[in-house]
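Supplementary Methods S3. Input chains for the assembly prediction are listed below.
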Amino acid sequence: MSRHWKPFPTTLCVIGLSLLLSATVVDDAFGNDSTNAGDEQGIGKQLYYDHGCYACHGYNGIGKHNIANDVSGIMSSEEIYLTFLRARSELNPPLPSQKMPHYPESSLSNAKALQIYAYIKTFKDTPPEVDDASALKAILDSAQERESQELSDP
Amino acid sequence: MSSNESDNDLVKASRETPAESGGISRRGFIGASVAGGASTVLPAVAFGTSNPRSDNRRPGSTPPSAEKMEREVGSSIPPAAVHTVRRAASDLMVQVLRDLEIEYVALNPGSSFEGLQESLINYGDRPNHMPEVISAMHEGAAVDMAHGYGRSEGKPMCALLQGTVGLQNASMAIYQAYHGHTPMIILAGNDENNFLKVHTGEDIAGLVRPYTKWDAQPETLEETLVALQEAYRQSITPPCAPTLVVLNSEIQKEEAGDLQVPRYSAPVVNGISKGQADAIAKSLLNADNPHISVGRLRSEDGIKSAVTLAELVGASVDSMATFGPMSFPQRHPLVGPGADKNYDYHLGLEIAAADLSITGPHLKAVTGRDAAGIGFGWKEDPNLRRRPTPKTLITEDAEASLPLIISAVEKRLTDSLRDSIAARMKVHKANNHSFRFSSLEKSIERKRPGWNGTPVSLARMYAELWPMIKDLDWCLASPSNFTGRHHRELWDHDKPYSYLGQYPAAALGYCLGASAGAALAAKDRDRIVINIQGDGDFNFMPGTIWSAVHHQLPMLTIMHNNRAWHMELMYVQYMAGVRGRGTDRAHIGTTFRNPYINYAKLAEGYGMKSEGPISGPVEMVAALQRGVDSVKRGEPYLIDVLTQPR
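Predicted structure tokens for the full assembly:
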């Protein structure tokens, strides 16, 4: 557990206080879901946006690095998630990088980090099967047809 | 005095020396030829010199006359008789370009080339054709157009620029074209009598000399015509690159008299020797499992030769067609690992290969042009990092070498060899088919995540577009390194111009101009151009939208609108994290917020059909179809799509 980690009940209290005090408007040009800015999910969404998580993980957890559907082991528990967030400053050299930034508690409190965590946990991606995605199916069918034609050519 | 005598006197007056006229000197003819080291150095033109003029003459400091001032602000025009000529010198310049089959001259008008511009639009039986004047809203856009055209067709078009100011506006685009090894001819007007002395200079080519291959500043009409031909020759001779001719404003307006356009002789591009070709042919035919890697060749002819060679020797092939133009067709049956990846002879054509590589001279071999010692760096192509180090490297042009190798192979082929090669090719085809299809299936699995998400996933954007264009002749002109490169796996890159590749110098502001240039090439060839356009890049020179409408270019622009200079956003986020100061202000200076930009409205303002912003995938699919239908009719179209960031 990270030394920054606070016991869960304390965290809950902080989240609750934040909920009471926060009435932020989600500055999300892309937001077209029914999330309310004032609820917990809305606060998490706002933080996810403000801290630029979307930059690599997409607006729905699908992006350069996918985190939807709990695919990332880092999201398997709050402890692991927080430990990962706090342990990155010495891992990467200060060169131009698109790697995951370091998030010290001074810039992102545990409470806020966990609100983001809770929001990420809501990401569910249910892509269609290839047969139900007409473009993907057309690409496969077309490739199959072309390759078969070439194989039959003398 | 007869009118002829009058004309002659006027011509004579215009050719007076500085001392005679008391005016400003005509610039010396500066021709900085390519330096030694490149194996394809052409014979230096007689009037060339490798150094800027060394005298101390400077543009005069005499205040402009009232007449000149009035002319510059458009209040008056020059007296009609002053430059009345029977046969305009600039007509001959146009004839040279026409003979060289230069299709387009992109320009932003200036006050140093009205002579040439008038000839471009009025000279000949079919004026404003071959070349046709293309209106560019910025000199950088003019050069980017020539860049996109050059990458697409493998031959030059022209960009015509105004003196010092136009050259400097264009400099970044020239730099990018240079690093792209892209042939183009840059013409820069220089009017030493212009009252705006800041538009003139003693050696204005020096502004861009370190990143042009060759330049000249001719002093006479005859020299000018020769210089134009030499600029073309130098530009298309490996290493291909932009070349520059500084056109004296007064020479353009002279009487040409009986002067004839000099005969043009095409450059001789060196290839390997016959002995080397024989040795390579022998190695290819002796191998049980030869493999050929094909990089970027110069033209479609080179690609045809590479295909011929691969089929003759039954080699499996790897291609760079998904990385840039002029490579082996991606879906050719021989492309793939083949029957066995343990190759016993690996030949590289314009790319590294384990046994022997033939790669033409690099621009690094063109030395002596960086007089200021700036020491520009070179961008390593990340796609080439893992290439093997060749046992043998021959620095000659691969395309010029291929006919000799093919001929040597044909001479050595026996019936027995033909039979074994045919059998090997059959196995290659089957294995490549299996490999390619399973690779495609895996790729498609990777494209599914986020398929129904809003905003649209970039994988879905590329996937949905492909069935709409696959039966058309198309060109993807925009770099895809910021949009996930999904076309590499999903689309078929079988034409020399299927994909024009990355930003050669990683410099933004390129996409719109380059796509417009590719669309110029496409316009009369029943081809359409796809431009998947980053918003950060778009905002450098959005005026190119108007150029595309004005010239009715078949260009479909699909905005990759992530409302940011996104890579830099991630860099700042990372740096804030390293310093422990938080990422919540990383958007400052890296994003387009407050207000958001409406690209559809912006395009509409320039006269382009457009729609958006669209963030839902279903709406995007319908819009893409409308866009494709529009460009098929020759009408450019823009769709503003709000996308996932990457």
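DSSP finds 21 helices and 16 strands in chain B. Chain B touches chain A through 59 residues (CB under 8 Å).
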